Amino acid sequence: MLGAGLIAYLIGLIIRIPLVHIIGDKGLGFFAAGMELLAVLSAVFSYGISKTVMLLVKYRAKRDMFKSAKKVYRSALFFTMAISILAAVFVFFFGEFIAQTFVLEYMGYLAVMAVAPAILLSGLLGVIRGYLQGMGAMTPTVHSKLLEKVIMLFACLMLAAERYNYGLKVAALLRNDDYAAAYGAMGAAIGVSIAGGVAVLHMVFIKLAYTGTFKQQLAKDTSKYVESNGQIISMFFSVALPYLLCALLYNMNYLVDQRIFNYAMNRQERGSIRVAHWGIYYGKYSVIIGIFAVACALAAVSGIPRIAQMYEKQEYGEAKYRIESKVHHLAILSIPCAVWTAVLAEPMVGMLFTGDQDTAAKLLRTGSSVIVVFAFSYFFMSLLQRIRKIRIVILGGLAAFVVHLIFLLALINSTKLGIVAVALGLLVFWLVACIAGFIGVMQSVRFSVDWIRTLGVTAIAAGASGLLGLFLSKLLIGLIGNAVTFILCFVLCIIVYLVVLIALKGVREDELEDIPGGNAIVVLAERMHLM
Fold first, then answer.
1. pLDDT tens, 325-383?
2. Which of 80, 229, 312, 392 is deepest in the core (most CB within 10 A)?
């Protein structure tokens, strides 16, 4: 499930690459206003509510309390739908107020209003997915998430293009070019709502397919005691609260940061570049950083369920070994990715995007370390949740949000860094979360880290490969173009990194074999007499 969630998030990031070609940097800036509002509410429903329903239903299903499980589902559905309907109605009818007052991006109101149906649908999806997961139907919910993102990819792009063309006519009529980007953003937001609708239909179909099985389970339920509605509601909110806090703390920083950034730019009389710079941050910097960070995190999350099982069985020695192994894997994957993202920022941005490329490259060079701290944060916090240390996850998220908020407010109001300050604020957020997660896991399992081999040798190998990549990039970019330069330099960086890492004993043969493609690397290293 962790891997599926990351893959779905990855697809959501990839959508922004062609989208920025259609609606431009300003369009992404307007789209961010609606999309991040949806992201916060969707995290509450799709993670907080869904997780709560799953836990409560699973507990009862394991004890053959299927009547109580169904009661949990119905109660959760009633309250969630009531809240999501109110939220959707408020967002739709007060979209202009939200965009102008809370986000300080008036032209984003079209995208804000367009995500209102998606808010309603995300509440329904969260409850149905949680119920099916609790009843043991995990695979269909994974398929549902992936289907939603695939539909979103096509619907967003098609509707963004259609609405952008319509917006060009409005822009010509009103003599304001921003309307084209705003309508394009609205089209993309409508595509998100359509994808949510398809996902709901898919989940309803799956639930209907399981109707016979669920009826048989209800018939087998011979328990004399069925919990009252009051008991279920009380338990629902007590279980939901920590997960709702997690959802908010780890997902609302983009929305808050956009408001702070817009306010600072207006005060500094730089409002003319405000929306375009946020679009670059949201549609270019965040996409590249997110793709590398998620790819690195995917390499570690597969081991989390097994580590959690060992912890519950008090097999602390084996759990400690596996955590140390995963930490090393994350280091040898994320550190070079951060270095290569920084040194190859120019050809990478030029290969993927049009528009303002210099600002995007500057952001990547400044904030590429987010790749490292996000990957470690995700691993540590996911593990802490699995071993029931959610209090640490909440406190870590709260500390990260508060520290990042203070840092960003101080930096953006006292300097002219602008959007670079936002990138540094994001780095601070995930750095604090990473430190909190590391301390939490360390206290729980008492694992150790070979700092010299894990960080020292890895940094040396990544630095050596990065210097080569930087030199070749500067030399070749004017001769052979962005795409060829990036591909050539990236491949050479990987080769040099692996050679130096293996030569300095930064990775063992058994560790390489645990990494995807590691067996091929071992064979090549042996032929080169490096192992």
1. 889 889 999 999 999 999 999 999 999 998 888 999 999 999 999 999 999 999 999 99
2. 80
Cβ contacts of residue 247 below 8 Å, gap of 6+? 40, 43, 44, 47, 48
Distance of CA 61 to the CA centre of its chain: 31
Per-residue burial over 483-504, b = 16 or more CB atoms within 10 Å of its CB, e = otherwise: eebbebbbeebeebbbbbbbee
The amino acid occupying position 258 is Q
- The span from the CA of 38 to the CA of 236, in Å, is 23
**Distance between CA 48 and CA 252 in Å, rounded?**
14
Please, what is the Cα angle at 528 between 522 and 531, to 5 degrees?
A: 50
Q: Are 164 and 226 in contact (CB under 8 A)?
A: no
Asked whether residue 287 carries a pLDDT value surpassing 80, the answer given is yes
| Alpha-carbon dihedral sign for residues 269, 412, 276, 174 | negative
Q: Which DSSP state fits 203?
A: H
Q: Secondary structure of 140-183 in the HEC alphabet?
A: HHHHHHHHHHHHHHHHHHHHHHHHHHHHHHHHHHHCCCHHHHHH
Neighbours of 221 (CB within 10 A): 16
Burial track 88-111 (b if 16+ CB lie within 10 A, e otherwise): beebbebbeebbeebbbbebbbbb
CB-facing half-sphere around the CA of 398: CA atoms within 13 A: 9
DSSP string, 93-127: HTHHHIIIIIIS-GGGHHHHHHTHHHHHHHHHHHH
Which runs of E-coded beta strand occur in 3-111? none
Give the residue among 519, 265, 253 at the shortest CA–CA distance from 417: 265
Distance (Å, whole) CA 240 – CA 353: 41
Predicted model pTM: 0.90
Cβ–Cβ under 8 Å, residues 57 and 128: no
Judging by beta carbons within 10 Å of its beta carbon (0-12, 13-18, 19+), is residue 315 exposed, middle or buried?
A: middle
Q: What is the spatial distance between Cα 499 and Cα 210, in angstroms, rounded to a whole number?
A: 53
In the numeric block, which tokens belong to residue 37?
């509002």
For residue 72, which of 130, 13, 17, 150 has the smallest C-alpha distance? 130
Q: Note whether 24 and 280 are within 8 A (CB).
A: no
- CA-based radius of gyration for the chain: 24
